[in-house]
Design a protein that fits this description.
By secondary structure, the protein is of the alpha/beta class. It is built from ten helices and 16 strands.
Length: about 325
């Protein structure tokens, strides 16, 4: 399914003195599952609201399936499905009533497009007479996705759809997105969860209204330029500070109960590092080479000024 589904060129949006989006540009292919990955305040919600014609940009142009978001906003609303981050269905209507309402306002019926939402809706159909406000987080999520899909959209916009949802429901949700993608729908999803990046065809890593990189998750990881170790010890707080004193250390970040330590050199003397930490009175020290995650890549990109033009840096670590 060739062609461009979404195009954004030199988009800028400010709220007073705050720059929410800073001259961003990208294209998304038709049928692609594309992720916007970044923390709160990165500009993800602002971008999706502009693309769904709910917000006007200050400068730049955007199109969805060839329609301009300003001139052709009515057409875009007919061909788009939108699931905002906050549950926004009618809590006093039942599950069935919400789905019927959204089908009706788009001039269709549940029966006409039931095949589109069957896999999703069947999971909540036993509760079809329950008011939406009484559903669990996972069921609210499935109902919202069903309502966004019931009019057979060409493009689906999902703004942090898994925030506040348990881990099992998050995995189930991404399985549903993969099935929807297989039907040819273009899907744009924003998330603060770095682990969800790996489920997208391509990702845009965002910070402070800027896109730091756009690539496949695998390519983002391959481009990670540093040597990386996982270091564990009993006193994680002091461990972080003392690792930053070690020669050749580029950065140190806490990842759960371990520290991810990035080195600029290609060869790391593991025994020397162990001796250094033992001299600092650390006990039960574990040092292992690891492959970078998307979160490691994000932290590095966030603290490194982007080259102009971007240059791929090669090299991998050897732990001696």
């Amino acid at each position: 399914m060739p062609g461009t589904s979404v195009s954004v060129q030199h988009l800028t949006k400010r709220y007073g003195e705050t720059v929410a989006l800073d001259d961003i540009s990208f294209d998304i292919a038709r049928g692609e599952l594309f992720g916007f990955i970044g923390p709160d305040g990165a500009g993800k919600t602002t971008l999706i609201r502009i693309l769904t014609t709910l917000l006007l940009a200050d400068t730049g142009t955007c199109s969805v399936e060839g329609f301009d978001v300003v001139k052709n906003y009515r057409k875009i609303r007919k061909i788009s499905g939108y699931m905002p981050g906050k549950f926004s269905l009618y809590p006093d209507l039942t599950v069935a009533e919400n789905l019927k309402f959204f089908a009706t306002i788009f001039g269709t019926t549940i029966e006409e497009n039931y095949d589109l939402v069957r896999d999703i809706y069947q999971q909540i159909e036993p509760f079809k007479n329950r008011k939406a406000g009484k559903l669990s987080g996972g069921m609210k999520q499935k109902l919202a996705l069903s309502c966004a899909m019931i009019h057979k959209p060409e493009v689906l916009f999902l703004d942090e759809p898994t925030t506040g949802v348990d881990a099992v429901s998050r995995l189930e949700f991404w399985d549903m997105l993969k099935r929807l993608k297989a039907s040819g729908i273009t899907i744009l999803v924003s998330t603060p969860y770095m682990d969800e990046a790996g489920m997208c065809d391509r990702v845009a890593l965002m910070q402070n209204g800027r896109i730091m990189t756009i690539s496949s998750p695998q390519q983002v990881i391959r481009n990670y330029p540093l040597s990386l170790l996982s270091v564990k010890a009993g006193d994680i707080y002091n461990l972080l500070g003392e690792l930053r004193e070690y020669p050749g250390v580029h950065s140190v970040y806490a990842f759960g109960q371990s520290a991810h330590v990035a080195f600029t050199g290609r060869i790391i003397e593991r025994e020397t590092l162990l001796g250094f930490l033992r001299d600092k009175k650390h006990e039960s020290v574990e040092v292992e080479p690891i492959t970078a995650t998307i979160e490691d890549c994000f932290m590095e990109l966030m603290n490194t000024p982007p080259p102009a033009p971007p240059q791929k840096r090669e090299g991998s670590a050897t732990v001696a």
